[in-house]
Design brief:
There is one protein chain. By secondary structure, the protein is α+β, with helices and mostly antiparallel strands. The protein contains twelve helices and twelve strands. The strands form three sheets. A five-stranded antiparallel β-sheet has the order 7-6-5-4-8. It has a four-stranded antiparallel β-sheet with strand order 10-11-9-12. It has a three-stranded antiparallel β-sheet with strand order 1-3-2. Helix 1 packs across helix 4 and helix 5 runs antiparallel to helix 6. The longest helix has 17 residues. The chain starts with a helix and ends with a helix. About 3% of the residues have low confidence.
């Protein structure tokens, strides 16, 4: 069955690429043996539409043209389906190959593999990997555990608004958000979505692990302009205190909170099982500290301590 379909797709592609004028469904059916054997018009139409969609998904640009008699025809112009020269050196090709290995999800792995095949067919070098000695024993991975990742990735790609339920760290219950998604980015092991929040009329960043239930897409156009550069990481970093100009003093249980230790500007090891750390203090640090639960005690400043206590109480009520 797979061989028969591949042969059918190849024949259809050759017909569309080899014609100088649009070919109607009737002409295509009379030119391809598999279409001639279709039981009836309905079976042929279903088969043809699936094949046409498959070829387009593979990257073939198929034009639909209506002639003076109102008949629909199809063709694939050669100039629209010719890859430009691929000029990559060995290191650039190796970097692309390494990036293609990152994704663990089957859907993304297939897309990455297909892209590499097309690039190699266009002339991308397959020389030896210059990084082989550095990462031959280690395979890169970007883990994605959130069910919201794939529908949001597709919504970002297709520019489709979405609706989902989102629970803020300070809220006991999730609330519905209507968002025009722009970009996804991984930062410190967590995935974040940047987009335009329609209800608030402003850009917002959402942490995927706080999305509850299903992500529902909407068949509507964007109402806000998508910026040329979406700074997800910079936005999240500012909320996590990366651009802080103050310091906070916390007590951290020994052997815990290694991300906090990595950020610390000063560490004083204690003898009671707790260490004292000075860390940069900026907007959003309270939300990050809450994630460490009973392993962290805020000593000061007082406003940070109060914010952390309020967040913990909200979580306890949930």
């Amino acid at each position: 069955m797979a061989i028969a379909k591949a042969e059918r797709l190849m024949n259809l592609a050759l017909c569309l690429l080899g014609t100088r004028r649009p070919l109607s469904k009737r002409e295509l059916r009379g030119s391809i043996e598999a279409y001639m054997e279709a039981g009836n018009d309905e079976s042929f139409n279903r088969m043809f539409e699936r094949d046409k969609d498959d070829l387009r998904e593979l990257g073939l640009v198929i034009e639909t043209v209506e002639n003076l008699d109102g008949e629909i025809g199809y063709l694939a112009r050669r100039d629209s389906n010719r890859l430009p020269p691929v000029s990559l050196d060995a290191e650039e090709a190796a970097a692309l190959g390494l990036a293609a290995k990152v994704w663990q999800q089957a859907r993304l792995a297939g897309a990455a593999s297909g892209a590499l095949q097309k690039l190699r067919a266009g002339g991308m070098p397959e020389a030896g990997d210059p990084y082989e000695g550095q990462h031959s024993a280690i395979e890169p991975r970007i883990p994605v555990h959130e069910a919201a990742f794939e529908p949001l990735m597709l919504a970002c790609r297709d520019r489709r608004p979405v609706v989902f339920d989102y629970r803020k760290s300070t809220a006991a219950r999730p609330e519905t958000r209507q968002v025009e998604p722009w970009a996804l980015e991984c930062w410190r092991g967590h995935w974040y979505l940047a987009g335009y929040d329609r209800d608030r009329g402003a850009e917002r960043v959402f942490r995927l692990s706080r999305i509850t239930g299903k992500v529902r897409s909407r068949a509507a156009r964007y109402t806000a302009e998508v910026p040329d550069v979406v700074t997800v990481r910079e936005t999240v970093a500012s909320w996590a205190g990366e651009s802080a100009d103050r310091s906070a003093l916390i007590r951290l249980r020994a052997g815990a909170g290694y991300p906090l230790r990595a950020k610390a500007t000063a560490v004083c090891e204690g003898t009671d099982g707790w260490d004292e750390l000075e860390i940069p203090y900026g907007h959003g640090l309270d939300a990050w500290l809450v994630e460490f639960g009973p392993d962290v005690v805020v000593v000061g400043p007082a406003d940070l301590r109060a914010d952390v206590v309020d967040r913990l109480r909200a979580v306890a009520k949930a």
